[in-house]
Structure formats: structure tokens, C-alpha cells
Prior knowledge:
It contains 1 helix and 8 strands. The protein is mainly beta. Strand 7 and strand 8 (111-113) form a beta hairpin. The radius of gyration is 14 Å and the shape is globular. The mean pLDDT is 97.
Amino acid sequence: MGLSTHVLDTMHGCPAAGMAVALYSTVGEQARLLKHLVLNQDGRNDGGPLLDNDTLTVGTYRLVFSVKAYFKAKGVALPEPAFLDQVSLDFGIADTSQHYHVPLLVSPWSYSTYRGS
């Protein structure tokens, strides 16, 4: 299955359709953009995993979620500066034969994540 993500908007109780997400591979402080995408109506990537098992390599990665832009586009009145702008999640892949699902549950004021299945 590779690597996947899913974002749920906990303020509105729905998938975060239209949120922009960037995926990077990282080595120390260096980050290389692998993919930029916009989430579909289900808050997921169109076309399946972000990286499939053949493309996924052992190492460290970063997902960057454009939270402020998403909530502004939904018409949410945010302070300036917003409490959350971009949420970056750094994580490691140790076994490329496993599925790594990195969901984000987010509002303008909080977020949580976990390794899903």
C-alpha cells in the first residue's frame, strides 16, 4: 500500500476537501519536494497512495498541510497571524513492505495525528 494521508476538518465535521499538501523526503535539515497535491472530496489523494511500495524507501519524510489557506477558503474568520498556518509532520519509514497511513485531524486551533492502518 505504501504511504497515504487523509485529512478531517474537525471544525466542520467533514473531510478537508481542497486542502493543499506537500510531501518531502528529508535528510537532516535538507528537504526535497516529492509531490504537491490538493485533497479530493474525501480529504484524500486522488489516484491512491502518495508513494506506492515500489517507490517508498526507508528514511524520513515530511508532510506539510496548508491549514490556514484551507480554513480561509472555507470562510473562517482567522486572526492575523493565524494560530496555525502550515502544519508540518516529520516521520520515519522503517519497513517499506508495510502501509504507512498518516492522517491529520485539524481545526484552526488544534491538530492531532497518528499512524493509521
